[in-house]
Amino acid sequence: MASGHPEAATRFVADDTRAHWHDQAVWWIRQKRDTASAAVPDWEALREAAAGIKRHALSRLADYLEEFERNATSLGAHVHWARDAAEHNAIVHKLLNDRGVTRLVKSKSMLTEECKLNPYLEARGIEVVDTDLGERIVQLAKEPPSHIVMPAIHRRKEEIGELFQIHLRTKPGASDPTYLTEAARHHLRDKFLAAGAGLTGVNFAVAETGAVVVCTNEGNADMGTSLPPLHIACMGLEKIIPRERDLGVFLRLLARSATGQPVTAYTTHFLGPRAGGELHIVIVDNGRAEILGREALRGSLACIRCGACMNTCPVFRRSGGHSYGYTVPGPIGSVLAPARAPATFASLPFASTLCGSCADVCPVRIDLHHQLLALRQELARKKLVSWPKRLVLQLAALVLAWSAAYRLGGWLARRLLPLVPRRLLYARWNVWGQQRELPPMPRRSFRAEYRRRRRG
Ligand code: SF4
Predict the structure, then answer these.
(1) What is the pTM of this model?
(2) Which residue ranges of the chain lie beneath pLDDT 50?
């Protein structure tokens, strides 16, 4: 039943300095997003248009996927369909194995993280090198990404310096970002040159043209697909957009929402394989079709993975991405994970204040807080929420439904809370009390104080 979010979050906040630093670092990106979006006069109209395009594409998904397959195939690409992670991994492995590829360079793809492709290939003797800088850092540290756009945001530059000293032989104590980035560039250049295949994610797949569009800031997707003869592009089936001109809407929203940039440094359109090369596109379901069939959660498939909902979420900022235990953390991950595996991720919909800030910044207007609320109700109905929590929620529902009960609750809280011994309020098991600064305990005994209050 437990996904471990509360426990993992407790471990994260135990390092007070890191928790504050993480909060500020992520909030800084949110502020950059605010500045960038405010500079676009038609920002809200763009969001509305993007939401409409995605709604439409999802309502005709099968048609657009088939149109995409036809057009991509006519350009010379090969399209493969994978029902789940196991099929996806088997297809990629077969493509590599049949061509004798033992070294694969990969640019950032959350889908391959979701399918656990790296360990699958490594167990079969294929070296996988993540070439996005943040991804490479977490790969060397043998840990998962903690953010979908900034995978190593939880690591300080000093820690990265130590990691690079071990793996890339940089100078001891070096933590200058320019020096470390230069070292990573040299290290990765050798990997690019030695690779037998390049694998990329897909930001958008255009049904009208059969193009796959990949956005990066480091140009690593272009390097990884220009040198080796084989390019494998892996995409979730929700990445489809109908027309080429729809791209303009999403590209204006994506980078501004993600990092506050006007546009990503590289936006590459792959229209078939390069001369003399092969392009294989793997389209993956892995639970998406089931989410599509659930009206309350369907909108989550519109996500363009910008990460803005994470950067604004007060729970994500203060608990870190690893505490979610899922490839996609934050508010959108708290919808996607329990939608697929409710028993494993039952605590995630509760890792939210339901303040609605995530929905406010989402470039495709996903009503994340409503979806989280719907999931909470569903989990409670399935009894996947612990009984004390269910009891408290039922009591809260009662109190909030009856104004007399609400007033009585307030009256009781005002009178009784100051009388409860501090040892009980701040006990280790009382998470509610630990988070609060309550009025000081009167010096009189409980009974004397109670009598005094009754008299007065
Ligand atoms: S849910 Fe919206 S804000 Fe969050 S990552 Fe997806 S597109 Fe971005």
Answers:
(1) 0.89
(2) 1-2
